[in-house]
Structure formats: structure tokens, C-alpha cells
Write a structure and sequence with these properties.
Keywords: Acyltransferase, Transferase. InterPro entries: Acyl_CoA_acyltransferase, Bact_Acetyltransf, GNAT_dom, UCP028520. The chain has one domain (3-157): Gcn5-related N-acetyltransferase (GNAT) (Aminopeptidase, 3-Layer(aba) Sandwich), CATH 3.40.630.30. Helix content is 35%, strand content 31%. The chain has helices at 11-20, 22-25, 30-39, 65-71, 94-108, 125-133; strands at residues 3-5, 42-46, 51-57, 78-85, 113-121, 137-144, 149-157. Strands 1-2-3-4-5-7-6 form a seven-stranded mixed sheet, sandwiched between helices. The longest helix has 15 residues, at 94-108. The relative contact order is 0.16.
Length: 158
């Protein structure tokens, strides 16, 4: 599976994909999406547009309370802000390929930890199972008061 950097031309389609999964990853405006891309440690997508991943790292100024939670607790990390896969492409290894790509980028930068959060309320069972299968462990839990969602923080050494 070919993975590449996200470009400006990709934004309309990726924003539509993101917002189609708003319950899991929260809806974004174009301005907010562009802001995340400007601050991203990694902004990667499949060449066919079926999935994308945005990540920040420990050096990125906090991009919200969830990223800030990790910056207060971990020295070096790559934080997965969101990974979104089109419904018709699920179960075909897209998310796994995006995570492997991020891990390779992080290892090249001497970052040995991937972190993220997954919704507990409302429960994102697919994402929770995905992360458990890949060896992520629980780092903590909180309520994200911006959206009224309970989240679980996860971590995985790479």
C-alpha cells in the first residue's frame, strides 16, 4: 500500500472523509483542518485516498487537552491525533499501514513511543480493539469536556 504526505489538493476529500466519521474523530472545519496540518509532525494518507493519519509529537505545542495530557507525562512521543479510513476500505489493512508508516517515521527520529486516545463514551469498539491487537496499553482516562466524551489514553513503545 502506497502512503504519502497530504497535500493542499487533498484537503477537500480528506475533510469530507474526516467529517463522515465525526462521532469517532470530531468534525473539523477547513480552517481547523489546515491548522492541524500546519502543526502536524506527520500528515500522511494512502495514495488512493481511502485513509489518512495526522500526528503531533512531543515538540508540538499542545493541540488540545488530550495532546497536552501526554506532553505533561512523556518526554518523547508521536501522538496520533486521528486516523480515518473510508467505510469501504475497512478491514483491508489501511489503518495498520498508516500506523506502521508513522512508526517508521518516529523511529527514524529516535522517537520510541506512539500514543493516542480512544473514545470510551461513546465507545469506539473498533478503535479500541484495533489498538489492543497492536499492543497498546492503558495510560489513563479522562473526560474531554469540549465534546462531552470519555476517553482512554493509550501508549505503545516502538
Amino acid at each position: 500500500m502506497q502512503i504519502r504526505d497530504i497535500t493542499q489538493a487533498d484537503l477537500p476529500a480528506l475533510l469530507d472523509l474526516n467529517n463522515s466519521e465525526a462521532e469517532a474523530v470530531n468534525e473539523l472545519t477547513l480552517d481547523a483542518f489546515e491548522g492541524r496540518l500546519r502543526n502536524a509532525y506527520a500528515a500522511r494518507m494512502t495514495a488512493d485516498g481511502t485513509g489518512f493519519l495526522l500526528a503531533f509529537d512531543h515538540a508540538t505545542p499542545p493541540q488540545g487537552p488530550n495532546h497536552a495530557w501526554f506532553t505533561a507525562r512523556e518526554s518523547y512521543f508521536a501522538y496520533v491525533d486521528r486516523v480515518v479510513v473510508a467505510a469501504h476500505a475497512r478491514g483491508k489493512g489501511v489503518a495498520s499501514a498508516l500506523y506502521e508508516d508513522l512508526a517508521a517515521i518516529a523511529r527514524a527520529d529516535k522517537i520510541a513511543l506512539l500514543v493516542c486516545e480512544v473514545n470510551l463514551e461513546p465507545l469506539n469498539e473498533v478503535s479500541m480493539a484495533f489498538h489492543e491487537r497492536r499492543g497498546f496499553t492503558i495510560a489513563g482516562e479522562t473526560t474531554d469536556h469540549r465534546y462531552g466524551k470519555r476517553v482512554r489514553y493509550l501508549r505503545k513503545p516502538i
